[in-house]
Amino acid sequence: MKKITKSSKTNPSQLSQLNSKCAGIDIGASELFVCIAKNSSEQEVRSFLTFTADLLRMIA
Asked: Residue 30 to residues 24, 25, 27, 36, 51: CA-CA distances in angstroms?
């Protein structure tokens, strides 16, 4: 059976921006990090716990 391996790792400096008006989210087991582009040169990163009340606050 052939072993499958990842041949390359993505370096963040190699990633291109697709849409400057989109949000990014990093989902962890106990905390979420949300990045929102406020304008073309400024970003805001906020963190939220994974409880329902925190998730509702995130989407408000």
From this structure: 17, 14, 8, 20, 9
